[in-house]
Design brief:
The chain is mostly beta strands. The protein has no helices and eleven strands. The strands form two sheets. Strands 2, 4, 5, 6, 9, 10 and 11 form a seven-stranded mixed β-sheet that branches. Strands 1-3-8-7 form a four-stranded antiparallel β-sheet, with no helix packed on it. The protein is globular and about 45 Å long.
Length: 118
């Protein structure tokens, strides 16, 4: 059974930091691309950060150097370090795993709430 479990969300003041974690099981983590997405109320889900199985990273334009995605293949876990948080970063943050075999197999976590107060 595939499980992606996010943790580390919470309430933080603007300018503060949070570190999100996504612990996975049931997938070959090391050969999956991993991503963080977010969805604010009334808005579409958007890509925050992506790290490929080879370690290449990419970020949404709005990140502007504030966030860092990383992975620990030994722990089957992907992280998102978020610094200089802004009210606009308030959203539910989701972890996603993508495996590109003959097709694309994708799995999502349940999400963790991040709320940034002014």
């Amino acid at each position: 059974q595939v499980q992606l479990v996010e943790s580390g969300g919470g309430l933080v003041q603007a300018g503060g930091s949070l570190r999100l974690s996504c612990s996975t099981s049931g997938i070959a983590f090391a050969i999956n691309d991993m991503g963080w997405y977010r969805q604010a109320p009334g808005k579409q889900r958007q890509l925050v950060a992506l790290i490929t199985y080879g370690g290449r990273t990419s970020y949404g334009d709005f990140v502007k150097g504030r966030f860092t995605i990383s992975r620990d293949n030994a722990k089957n876990t992907v992280y998102l370090q978020m610094n200089s948080l802004e009210r606009e970063d308030t959203a539910v943050y989701y972890c996603k795993a993508d495996y590109f075999g003959r097709g694309i197999q994708s799995y999502w976590g349940q999400g963790t709430q991040v709320t940034v107060s002014s």
